[in-house]
Amino acid sequence: MSQIRIKENIIWYEERRPHYEKFEHKINKLITEILDSEKIPYHTIESRTKSLDSFNSKIKQKMISKPTEIEDIVGVRIIGYVESDILKIISVIKENFDLDYNKMENKQKELGVSKVGYRSTHFLCNLSNNRSRLSEYQQFSDIPFELQIRTILQHAWAEIEHDRNYKFSGILPEEIQRNFNLLSGLLELADNEFERISNLIEKYSQQVSQNTKEGKLDITINSTSLKQFLIERFGDNNHIKPTFESVSSDDSRIIVDELHDMGIHTLLDLENIIPKDLEEIYEKLNSKTTFARLIRQILIIHDMEKYFTDAWKSHFLSFTSDSEYTLGEYGINLKKIQDYFRHAISNPNMGE
Description:
Elements: H1 3-37, E1 44-49, H2 52-62, E2 74-80, H3 83-96, E3 97-99, E4 105-106, H4 107-111, E5 121-127, H5 129-132, E6 145-151, H6 152-163, H7 165-168, H8 174-213, H9 223-234, E7 240-241, H10 250-261, H11 267-273, H12 278-285, E8 289-290, H13 291-311, H14 321-328, H15 334-345
Parallel strand pairs: 2-6, 7-8
Antiparallel strand pairs: 1-2, 3-5, 4-5, 5-6
Helix pairs in contact: 1-2, 8-9, 10-13, 13-15
């Protein structure tokens, strides 16, 4: 290709790159909304539009005559947690976009049974005909984008391999190559094991849910059983948000510790101390709460002195006004709570 033609293509891309960037942001947002609406878990959704240097390099390397022949100017990468999440993501993508199956790549299948290494699924996608007809997408109807879907461990391997490619590429000394292959295989085994454990947890959650519905509550309290119990017990109540406060598992772990310190070890123990009229109180006061505050309210109503003596570990220092109103219905006013806070703070060994 002549230098004049190469320069023309680069000028073409310089003028149109803002349009591709606009499409990139649009497609990232769309995929995010689709996965969120389907409640499919994922770690991150990344996207990029080729830089001018990258575009220039590809034009020269591939000897492309027309810049529109470059089909990965816009790229999106979805990083899921485990393989079952990846399968759900792929299914949803197939339902919402037009895929060029002739250009689909499954890096895992390409490795075969005797090799280990980079694993990921790549698609070449376009907006579906139905979506392309919508006014907000019409201007992007002819733009393809590359989509990569991988687990978080597959992503870790790909990033390390990419970053160290100058070291890992080519033929390595036999012992180093062996270690390299062992490490890649170890990551693949870890990926499979995370999937297996995830399935076990899901089966356990379903069993707890079924037992709760049947009133079989002689189940040891742990983070999974507690959350599933609360979902079944209070999930339909609009005044109780079915989550713990933070994204991490810390809140549920702390709550489980507090329950155990109070001598509450099974779901039946917990059920037996839940005030019979608690949900009626929420309705009457139009009070709002979350799982963590709900459990603490139950424990304080059950035995405030024991809670602050044996269980409280300075993980929270105040209640919301909703909590104060709810506790007030059981004769526990703000002054009493503040007195116990002050007493507990002045005795730092309490609850340990």
